[in-house]
Amino acid sequence: MGLPGEAATVLLAALMSMGGAVGVAASLATAGALTGHDVTVLLPAMYLMGNPVQNVGRCLGTAEVNAKYYPHIITVCVINALLSIWVMQLIV
């Protein structure tokens, strides 16, 4: 998608924690592994993924959503994030 391989670490961090993803992106940008353009493209994806691992325990578990739907919900988050990367590549 036009991003360096290091961008995958940002997306993996977003699965676990949105704040962690911001920290990883900032760290990689400071180290020179990601450019400002790369971080700009990744920002919407970080927020659309929105730490689904934490949401499973906090929101879906509390709402008693059937566990068989968890993978579908997480997949929608990932698809939204990948689509946002594509759209941002067109815009930026």
Mean pLDDT: 89
Radius of gyration over all CA atoms, rounded: 14 Å
Count of beta strands: 0
Straight-line distance between termini: 13 Å
Largest sheet: none
Question: What share of residues are in beta strands?
Answer: under 5%
Tally of individual helices: 5
Low-confidence stretches: none
Helix-strand makeup class = mainly alpha
Please trace the helix and strand order, writing H or E for each element: HHHHH
**What's the overall geometry?**
elongated
* Helical residue percent band: over 70%
What do these coordinates show?
One of its GO terms (cellular component) is plasma membrane. InterPro entries: SpmB (IPR052549). Keywords: Membrane, Transmembrane, Transmembrane helix. This is Putative transporter. The chain crosses the membrane at residues 69-91. The protein has 92 residues and is mainly alpha-helical. It has one domain (7-91). It contains five helices and no strands. It has helices at residues 7-16, 18-31, 36-49, 52-60, 70-91. Helix 1 (7-16) packs antiparallel against helix 2 and helix 2 (18-31) runs antiparallel to helix 3. The two termini are 13 Å apart.
